Amino acid sequence: MTFPMPVQSLDQALFLAASEGPTRIADLTSDFSNAPLAWPADKGAPFGGLMAALAVRAMREGLDIQPPLMTLTVQYLAAARFAPITFSPTLDRGGRSVAYASVRAGQPGRPALTALGTFGTLGHGPEVRPLSPSPTPFEDLDPTPVDPQLAPWFTRYIEHRFDGGPKIGGGSPLSDPTLRLWMRTIDHRPLDELSLCFLLDGIFPSYMTVLPAPPVPSASVDLRYDLIEPVTPDTSPEGWAIFQFRTRDVSGGWALDDGMAFATDGRPLALARQRRKLFGPRRTPGA
Prior knowledge:
- By secondary structure, this protein is mostly beta strands.
- The protein is built from 3 helices and 12 strands.
- It has helices spanning 10-13, 48-63, 193-199; strands spanning 17-18, 24-27, 69-76, 84-94, 98-107, 110-120, 158-162, 178-185, 218-227, 241-251, 254-262, 268-278.
- Strands 1-2-4-5-6-3-9-12-11-10-8-7 form a 12-stranded antiparallel beta sheet.
- Helix 2 packs antiparallel against helix 3 (193-199).
- It is globular and about 50 Å long.
- Mean pLDDT is 92; it is low at 282-287.
């Protein structure tokens, strides 16, 4: 089975056009759909990692915020359509060391998300860094495409190398319900703030590795990123980062998972937490 190559570049997808004042406009296309590749792309919606990265960029560019991103919290109010979308950022409080901003994004008659961003400068102080990445060396991992029957359209923009395989369909034991992998964007750009936000949501939900097949679909409701240190061009010149996604709970029609990102030298870069609303089993197209 073959699928069309990406049409839009990642730079084009992350581009924001200036509008009135701090308002910015992005053009959402089905290239970044969260629908499985086996489905028409327009059956899905723009995936959460892209929307999170656009929210950060809208706050930073629209409000001229300079300090590094510390925390991003996103509420996905409704699935956006594949059409232009308006981001309206507000500086809630600015200071010399910390800035608080928010942004609302939506399309005519359809609010899509609200987001809060905390930006702060780094200072001097004690260091305690207990987080550690997957022990598997990169050179021991083979490129692993995600099953095209299950992989979302947006994964065409990401290179994946799984530690122990994708594990979809119950491959992760409950004693260690963790998906470990390396990822980078296909343009091999040096890792930066926006691509890290993109990649932190750049794979299928980790609960799919502890539940039996077929995968249960879901929608992201809340997403939070905590960046631990600024991401510079020297952090990962080839764009790779190490990720771990761990299922925390699946119950009552909801799923909760945590993520961690590390630089290739083992430095911790970010933490993520995502809550998803589960839906009934997918029907086969045409059934």
